Amino acid sequence: MRKSGNLTIMICLISFTVNNGYSSEKDSLNFEKKKIYSMLLDGRINDALNYVKSFEDNNLVQEDLEIKNNILNRFGFDVDKSEFINEKKSRIDELYIIYRDYWRNSFLSGNEFDDKLISDLYDFLKKHINIDEDTYNKKDQDSLNNYLKEYLKQNGYFTTGFGRTGSYLDFLCWENQYDTVYSFNVHNETLTPKVVRMKNFVSLGWQEYATFKKYYPGGWATKEAIYYVDGAFKEDSENFLVGYLAHEGQHLRDYNYYPKLTGADLEYRAKLTELSMYKEFIYNFINYLITNSNYQSTNAHSIANYCVIRDMSKNIFDTEFENDFEKWKTISVNRLNETAENLFKQNTLALDSIGKEVQNYIK
After folding, report:
1. Which of 283, 280, 271 is nearest to 236 (CA)?
2. Is residue 121 within 8 Å of 144, Cβ to Cβ?
3. Which residues are CB-neighbours of 218 under 8 A, at least 6 positions away?
């Protein structure tokens, strides 16, 4: 987490975890789940709505029909008709509804409702905690951050505070946490960061809401520690050791080496780190990067995904962007690892040549 003006921003430096809720023996013809979730993760809810509406119910297997109905119930009407809040039932439902409505309005309209969210949060918080209205400035988002944390603390919750993930102001909130330490290597450097393990989440943010908990944050990094959503990964898996620890460890390292580096560049470096280390999961990861690439997106992950595949493609296939996954599967794991490592080193040299003031490079 870092400062941008007066706003504490969580700039999408998140290890996504996937709740593998579908594994059909049979799929509906042309109903592409990965395409749907890519739209949802990128905030393109109207595209996802139009896509699922193009399929007749009687042409969908039960599992795919449920996905369609989930999207329609949550986003297809004037109000959210899903059971989202009821399923989340907590001591802070009223606050959560404010965020839910902000996310939903932002997704569906394509407009920015940040000012309305800030105003709604202020009106809500002044009802529940002591706010000095004579000195409080609604544009002072650091104060809003402190008041939000105070309200949640009084109700027994932890939070990242008032901040942004990608295009949207986010809300991550949990009930329990404890500290531990992990030791691991990233690019021949041994890291031993504090890892804060968080449990009993009320909210995993807008990605969880948009994708029906198919995708959600598995963790994130600050300059001081790595935060882990307990149970998000199997802890003896590559997803945990590489996709979480190495990914977030790279963020933690980069925060200190390049304190002003922005989200897409940070994600680019973390994803190259993953590609330089994955063995069993590497082809699945490449397929994920291809599917979720969007250079025009405002989402740091989508931009970084595109740039990683673009630069890997140029080095391996001498093409601008190779989206044929079958071609990637013909490349050895060692070559993929080595190419990613070389690209990472080239990027590091480029950033070092600019210095600690560097803000962006890959675009």
Report:
1. 280
2. yes
3. 14, 15, 16, 17, 228, 229, 232, 233, 243, 244
Distances (CA, A) of 298 to 174, 270, 303: 27, 18, 8
Beta strands in the chain (DSSP E): 2-4, 7-9, 14-18, 158-159, 163-165, 168-170, 172-181, 184-186, 189-191, 194-204, 215-221, 225-229
How far is Cα 342 from Cα 329, in angstroms, rounded to an integer? 20
What are the φ/ψ torsions at residue 169 (nearest 5 degrees)?
Answer: -65, 135
Decide if 254 contacts 262 (C-beta within 8 A): no
Output the tens digit of pLDDT for each of the chain's 363 residues: 323 333 333 333 455 555 543 344 456 778 999 999 999 999 999 999 999 999 999 999 999 999 999 999 999 999 999 999 999 899 999 999 999 999 999 999 988 999 999 999 999 999 999 887 766 666 678 889 999 999 999 999 999 999 998 889 999 999 999 999 999 999 999 999 999 999 999 999 999 999 999 999 999 999 899 999 999 999 999 999 999 999 999 999 999 999 999 999 999 999 999 999 999 999 999 999 999 999 998 889 999 999 999 999 999 999 999 999 999 999 999 999 999 999 999 999 999 999 999 999 997
Nearest-angstrom CA–CA distance, 48 and 39:
6
What is the spatial distance between Cα 131 and Cα 111, in angstroms, rounded to a whole number? 30
DSSP label at residue 279: S
